[in-house]
Amino acid sequence: MNVTSVTSEDGVKEYEKIVVEPEEVEYVEIASDAKVVDLTRHRLKKIGDYSWLTHVEQFSLRWNLLKKIENLDCLTTLTHLEFYDNQIEKVENLDALVNLEILDLSFNRILKIENLEKLTKLKTLYFVHNKISKIEGLETLTELEYLELGDNRIAKIENLENNLKLDRLFLGANQIRIIENVDHLKSLTVLSLPANAITVVDNIAGLTNLKEIYLAQNGIKYVCGIDEHLPLEILDFNQNRLEKVENIHQLTTLTDFWARGNQLSDWSILDELVRLPHLNCVYLDNNPFSQADTYRGKVLRFLPQIDRLDGTQCREKSMLRPPKTEKQTTDSADVEFEKSSGGEQEPVEST
């Protein structure tokens, strides 16, 4: 659009000429036998006729202006379909895509999970940042392994009875108050529930394969229901209201313990953590006891097994040398290790 303004000698605007130019048309060449089609950021307002794509397996329509899912019935070869960041309000017209394994509908305006019954091969499903208020419509998706429903309006964990293959479940930034209805998910290895309204950690003892649980930014005051037999490796309590942590020492597989920004006021937490042989990374900053000048030094003395404290490296790898023996032959040489400029350790013969 070109705008031209004309003014008189005394500065009074006389008229304005506006020339509207036709919107520039963008042409994209796509081979009929293409297996991957990427139409990201093409300002598409409608899905056209793509029936001539007879081999396509992956189709990306990310960052466009689409309001409706349509005209995809012929693309039965699709296994991966993305609608990330559009203006879609309803899940529809996907029944023919029976080979789909990955479907991404994140950052849209969807109110309800529906019309997915025929997509029984789905393994990965994304609905991040929509307006969904209930977990539903997943009963036939028995192959589902990865479910992401973060940043919605969900108040309850429910209706996952048939999704026994779930490996990773993400429900962050919702309105969930209680961890419930997950005991049967024996394959679950990752449970992510940050930024909800959970106050008590409970009902996870049955998750016998759980390795990572993320509970940051809730209102957690108490920890119970964490069974000693859980194979947890990452335990995230950042930004909660914890005043005391007990029985964490039972989690012998734990490598990461994160509890920054809580209300821990004494050093008893170290008595728990010192008994964890595989512990490597710890966050304890922004607690009352971490304000002490001796905080960092004391933690490092109590926890000799950790390499990272509050996000920074706290130990260098120790020098390596062969064990000394009482008898050595005259032609043998001691070997010591010195750090090279690149940080690697290199052997140096001593004379």
UniProtKB/TrEMBL annotation:
Would you tell me the Gene Ontology cellular component terms?
nucleus
| Protein's UniProt keywords contain Iron | no
Sorted alphabetically, the keyword list is:
Leucine-rich repeat, Nucleus, Repeat
Q: Where is this region: Disordered?
A: 316-351
Kindly report the protein's main subcellular placement as a broad class: nucleus
- SMART domains in the record: LRR_SD22
**Sequence ranges of Basic and acidic residues compositional bias:** 316-329
User: Where is this chain's protein located in or outside the cell?
Assistant: Nucleus
Matching entries from InterPro entries are given as: Cilia_flagella_integrity, Leu-rich_rpt, Leu-rich_rpt_4, LRR_dom_sf
Protein name, please?
Protein phosphatase 1 regulatory subunit 7
Tell me the lineage of the source organism.
Eukaryota, Metazoa, Ecdysozoa, Nematoda, Chromadorea
Q: Which gene encodes it?
A: Cni-C06A8.6
